[in-house]
């Protein structure tokens, strides 16, 4: 399992899918009904592949969402993030804390 920690870097949505994408990049998607998603390239990911995404909310009791502190440039999410591979192996486990992906 990858145990690397890296600084996160906010990029525009179009860049997270491009050739200039890097490990640690993140962006946001805003839905029609107020839902939000953060897209991110975790330390275990290949930047050439599509980013991972999780639903986020600043509301404490919002179901099926990671709690987001609302900071766009240096976000914090809870609970932890767990990346699972195609064979159910753990690829990376950690937190996004104040704009840094921190390994557990």
Low-confidence segments: none
| Tally of DSSP helical segments | 1
Overall strand count: 10
Strand order of the largest sheet: 2-3-4-5-6-7
Shape type: globular
Q: How many domains, as an integer?
A: 1
In round numbers, the mean pLDDT is 92
Question: What is the SS-derived class?
Answer: mainly beta
Q: Separation of termini?
A: 11 Å
Beta percentage is 35-45%
Helicity, as a percent range? under 10%
Note the run of SSEs as H and E: EEHEEEEEEEE
Return Rg in Å: 13 Å
User: What's the main sheet like?
Assistant: 6 strands, mixed
Notes on the structure:
Strand 2, helix 1 (about 15) and strand 3 (about 25-30) form a beta-alpha-beta unit. This protein is globular. It is about 5% helix and about 40% strand. The protein has one helix at about 15, and strands spanning about 5, 10, 25-30, 35-40, 50-55, 65-70, 75-80, 80-85, 90-95, 100-104. The strands form two sheets. It has a six-stranded mixed β-sheet with strand order 2-3-4-5-6-7, with no helix packed on it. Strands 1-10-9-8 form a four-stranded antiparallel β-sheet, with no helix packed on it. The protein is built from one helix and ten strands. It has one domain (about 5-104). The protein is mainly beta. The longest helix has 4 residues, at about 15. The mean pLDDT is about 90.
Key phrases:
single chain, 104 residues, mainly beta, 6-stranded mixed β-sheet, 4-stranded antiparallel β-sheet, 1 helix, 10 strands, 4% helix, globular
